[in-house]
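Input/output pair, single chain:
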Amino acid sequence: MNIADSVPDPVNPVALTDRLAQMERLQRVVETSDQLMFEVDPAGCFTYVNQAASSYFGVAPAACPGQPVTAFVHPDDQANVRQWLSEWSTNQQRHLSEEIRVVHRHGALFHMLWRMTFHRDDTGRLQSITVITHDITAMKQQEETQRAFRLFIENSPDGFAIADQNLRLTYTNHAFSAMLNEPSLVGRSVVELVCADDHARLVTAARTAERGQAAWDIMRYVRSDGTLITVHTGMIGLCDHQGNLIAYALVNHDMTSQLQAETELRRSEQRHRALLAAIPDLMFVLSADGIFLDYKADKLLLPPEAFLNRHVNEALPPPLAAQALSYLERLKRTGDMQVYEYQIEFMGQLEEYEARMVPLQDGALVLARDITAQRRAERERVAMQEQIIQAQQAALRELSTPLMPIAEGVVVMPLIGVIDSARAQQIMESLLNGVSEYKAHVALIDITGVKIIDTQVAGVLLRAAQAVRMLGAQVVLTGISPEIAQTLVHIGAEIRDVKTKATLQEGIRYAMTVGNRS
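Output:
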């Protein structure tokens, strides 16, 4: 088509030149813009792609025209795009915006917002679609990070809360409500909840937070039944972009168990010290060459006449004698006090002693303290600590496999982190118990937070699905990233019988649809 044919007669050369110059400038703007711009025909095939868009698609601009736009769309979004193309050809909308995921030829996934303008002829027939897209991948990632953070806060064992400038609560997580035995704390004043004797601490913490510093202190809250709970409270001031205080964030760690354990530990240590103080030390004087010269003791392995004025080798068992002589030689060589422990059988019982050997002018003084009870107590304390650690690990395993009902007949289990054999068993038990308890017909397993999928994890998911089906429910697996999908294919995981959805939101929509049909 000749350009002159489209210009009204008579032709104004100046106007034509300006028009062509404007078109050239517009073309340069489109080609050099970092906005992704392209045009498709009613069938959904490219007719034009600018440089920015071709970079995202991973092909040269000249190779795009004629190709279907769905070739660069995420597989889960291709059906939607085809449906939209069918609808766009008949409706009379002029502008439309949709979120669509684009896959780079190297496999990278981008979340894009497509802003579309529809061009129609005089009869209303669709001629072409101009698309300007915006990369919202970072925004989506930020939303996912915020979702994970909210999940962390909601499932944290510590009590998190947000209070306004007047210290009135605007948000609390479940742990904080449970800590104070209150179903709802929103709208309550922190001043009202804190013990009156600790109000001065609260005011000091608030003033510190106002200055932009984190404030930590020990405070007591009043529970609904009037009892006090001691917590380690942290307060942080939240400011707007201008630095103005808009709220306070509070973190509360329940110290009740810790204080009780410390009190019990102090009592135990006091008992041990009292026990040791009640037992006099055994005292022996040795000559420089290892002969017993004197003693002071309430109980003896041998009668005095059997060891006084006798050499260590004659009075003590060979291993104990060798140990004593070794430290005696070291004492003479260094002049430093020697501390060592030994065991000895007394009246059929094995006793433990701590010996301190100090130098005398012509020999050495040995003070032996019976530490049998002390060593036994230390071993018991270590065993108790191991039991506490095991209990904490069990509690953490329960938190690592949370199962929540989100609607009638629908439960969700979000998984985060690494899944080992112990946690795999926990997942199976929690899922089956939850399906049975809530009479669920759909169980959503979200693996968005699982970074590594191997044969073991895939086997756990498949076994869980089989077990849930035996209870009459269906498993929907959500949050499968492209990397995890490739891994499942690579290891040959058979998940044909498991319903999958890309995101937890899609899984929830599917579960609601199944619930409505049932």
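The longest helix spans residues 372-400. The CA atoms of residues 144 and 193 lie 34 Å apart.
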